[in-house]
Amino acid sequence: MTSTDDLIHSLASTAGTQRSASFPAALAITGAASLACALLLLFSVIGIRQDFADMAVRMPFAFKVVYAGALVMGASVIALYAATPGAAATALYALSPAVILLACGAIFDPTGFPIMGRTSTAVAICMGRILFLSLPAMILTFVFMRKAAPTQPLFAGAVIGMLSASLGALAYTLACRNDGTAFVAIWYAMSCAIMAAVGAMIAHRVLRW
Amino acid sequence: MTVEEREQRWTEAMRAERRGDAVAYERMLKEVATALRRSLVPRLARVGLGVHEAEDLVQETIIGLHSKRHSWDPARPFLPWLHAIARYKLIDFTRQRRRDTRRRVDLPLDDWLEMADPSADAATRSTWEMDRHLAVLPVGQRKIVRAIAVEGASVRSVAQELATSEGVVRMTLHRAISRLLAAANPTPAIEPLSRNAHDKHR
Q1: What is the domain partition of chain A in residue ranges?
Q2: Fewest C-beta atoms under 10 Å: which of A209, B20, B158, B165?
Q3: What span, in angstroms and rounded, lies between the C-alpha atoms of A86 and B116?
Q4: Are A138 and A160 in contact (CB under 8 A)?
Q5: Residues B81, B72 contacting (CB under 8 angstroms)
Q6: Separation CA B135–CA B142 (nearest Å)
Q7: How confident is the model at residue B169 (pLDDT cuts 50, 70, 90)?
């Protein structure tokens, strides 16, 4: 038992050297930086949609932005929950706006565009680009989570993956050529699911402490 | 002491830590260690782990509490925060033990070939022997023993390299040596039949 007491003594001697960390502020900065990186990638590699000015004032674009924004907000709140030991699980409800939008967009699609997009490769291109745009967010949010204290690494990794993909999707709204709300609702969510799986897979290596 | 009293006492001590009060913080860590020990020893005994392992886990949990104390918000209750950390460390610890056990009884291709072709010269044999002895230790302890006892690094440089304090390194080394001694002198008569005893007779 003496070695434990020695350990405690040496730990206690560093009392007062750490301040309370504000995780919401840290995550907000991380998210803003991730979105900036994603937009940079979008402008330099993909480019915005040609008829952007015309499209930006119509309903499908608004749906895309609101939906991706709801995903970002929900995933952010849940990421804060995953980052803090002993936080209340009511944070999980933060995802409900996105779920409602997903259901409404998929069921009551007013545009009538096909679910698989206008061309046969639309789904692969859309999801591939969202995943590509979410890569910088993936790195930055993992850095955030490592500094926090996730006590469920697998869950924390999945949430981070989802947050990254939703940030990627938010940036991608400027370039997305498919206006069907069902298409957007389903395939943006699918990108989040893929990235969540990736995050969960690497979490147990990266997030151990 | 009721839960409310304990919550209030430890919350007070955590706030004192933020102000740099090392004495109150040390007293609280000792109380937490005692409480953890009382809860973990019977829990680990149920899966065949001894007091030794329980103490390792108590230390891991204390280190975790200390290194993540910035994630505790003074406005929020302390006990749920500590519970989440203790539970995470317990799960991580048992998972790590399982992996260690699997690795120790593993039959890698090299060993398999060696068995079929026993012509390895004495030099490679001696390093191989040492590796085999050190394999009794968990990964973290092995790294430190190798750096200090085999490569001759100083405690300070090892502590810097692993980004922890010298106290932690010394303590880990101490723990590793007692474990190596225990592995070198098996005492079957007084050891209870446990997974721990099985490891020692390997």
Answers
A1: 22-206
A2: B20
A3: 54
A4: yes
A5: yes
A6: 7
A7: confident
Please choose, from the candidates A17, A12, A172, the residue with its C-alpha nearest in 3D space to the C-alpha of residue B168: A12
Q: What does the block give as tokens for B75? A: 């406005």
The complex scores an ipTM of 0.84
Mutate to test the interface with A, among B70, B90, B92, B141 (most CBs of A within 10 A): B70
Q: Determine contact: B75 vs chain A, CB below 8 A.
A: no
Q: Spell out which residues of chain A touch residue B87, defining contact as CB-CB under 8 Å.
A: 151
Q: Where do runs of H (alpha helix) occur along chain B?
A: 3-18, 22-45, 51-67, 78-104, 109-116, 122-134, 139-145, 155-161, 166-184, 195-200
Distances in Å between the Cα of B60 and the Cα atoms of A150, B65, B73, B92, B171 are 16, 9, 22, 10, 12
Provide, as residue numbers in chain B, all residues whose Cβ is less than 8 Å from the Cβ of A10: 165-168
Q: What pTM value is reported for the model?
A: 0.75
CA distance linking residue B60 with residue B141, whole number of Å: 13
Residues of chain A with Cβ-Cβ distance to B58 below 8 Å are 4
Domains observed in chain B? 3-102 (1.10.1740), 107-200 (1.10.10.10)
Closest CA to B164 of B14, B59, B90, B40: B59
By the CB < 8 Å criterion, does B62 face chain A? yes
pLDDT in tens, B118-162: 665 666 666 777 777 888 888 888 888 888 877 778 888 888 888
For B76, residues 6+ apart whose C-beta sits below 8 A from its C-beta are A86
Residues 152-191 of B with CB under 8 A from A: 165-168, 170-171, 174-175
Query: What are B18-47's pLDDT values in tens digits?
Result: 998 999 999 999 999 999 999 999 999 988
3-state secondary structure of B162: coil
